[in-house]
Every structure is written in structure tokens, then in C-alpha cells.
Amino acid sequence: MPFNIPPETLKEIAEQLDMGMKCFYHIQTSELEYFPDELKGHAGFDEEVWEESISKVEENFHEYIQFEGMESHESFRLMEDFVAEIADKKIRQRFEDAIGYRRPFQNFKQLLLSYPDLREQWFAYKDQRFIDFVKEQADAYNHSLKDQKNDEEDE
Questions:
Q1: pTM for this prediction
Q2: With contact defined as beta carbons under 8 Å apart, do 121 and 61 qualify?
């Protein structure tokens, strides 16, 4: 059965993924569970603090949809797309240079500090793209359910 996630929950999932969390949406109750993702910079986190959420998900994994965060190449592409939209050619060139060198994420963040208006635009842009990324995962899940139902009907 397809499901719809409310916009405020999509936003919350996107925010948690952006912070490096693992996110799980309970299909029947619409509850959201999340905890640090060791692969996204949270190695060695205190599992005791997150024990309740981890246990809920592990014990009922089949009742949840897991949402994945962006891989580094996807995050880089997001940065590239934003830079490509900068109207001022000189400023755009500065950002293109910054992300073309070693440590592109760090360079980008540092350069944004010199452009407060662009910094605000970046956060709004990134937030919307993360929400879109979560929607795509939900749509893919709904599509797979539809395919599964069609396969069962064909049998």
C-alpha cells in the first residue's frame, strides 16, 4: 500500500540525514526513528543514548523504510549545481576554483563566509534539494510496492 509522508516529516528526515543520521520511517504509525550513522562521521557514538531507537528499528526492521543520506559524490554535485547558478561571473569563478582544489567542501564552506547572502541562499537550496532527495526515495519505495503488487497479480 503506497504511503504519503507529510511535508514537515520530509523536512525532518532531510535535516537528520544532513546531520549524518540514519533515518527510519514507520509505515503504519508514521513515527520517525533516527540515530547516528557510523559511516557519516559518527564512529564510536554512545549507543546507550540511542538504545531505544536502535532497538525499535532492529526488532521491527520490516515495518520501517530506511532513508539514506547523500553520498559524498552526490553532495559534491549539489555544490556544483549551486555554484553554476551564481549570477555574478567573478564570484562564480571563485567558487568554481574553490571546489576544484583539494578539500572542496572545506573550501566551499570557508568561501561562503565571505558572502553572507549566498550563504543564506546555499542553505535554502541545500535544504530543498535534501527534501527532494528524500521524496525521491519515498517515491522509489512506493513504485517498488506497485511493481511487487503487479508481479503478485500476474502469478
A1: 0.81
A2: no
Closest CA to 65 of 116, 112, 10, 110: 10
- Grid look-up 517498488 returns 144
Element (H, E) at 18: helix 7-18
The CA distance from 64 to 57, in Å, is: 7
Q: How far apart are CA 10 and CA 70, in angstroms?
A: 15
DSSP tag of 68: P
DSSP string, 52-107: HHHHHHHHTGGGEEEEPPPPHHHHHHHHHHHHHT-SSHHHHHHHHHHHHSSSHHHH
Among residues 11, 137, 15, which one has the least CA distance to residue 66? 137
CA distances from 33 to 57, 58, 111, 117 (A): 7, 11, 35, 34
Q: Which pLDDT band holds residue 154 (cuts at 50, 70, 90)? A: low
Q: Which of 108, 101, 138, 142 is nearest to 125 (CA)?
A: 108
* Residue that the C-alpha cell 533515518 belongs to: 23
Q: Go through the chain and tell me how many residues it has.
A: 155
Three-state SS at 115 = coil
Q: What pLDDT is recorded for position 9?
A: 94
Q: Which residue has the cell 526513528?
A: 33
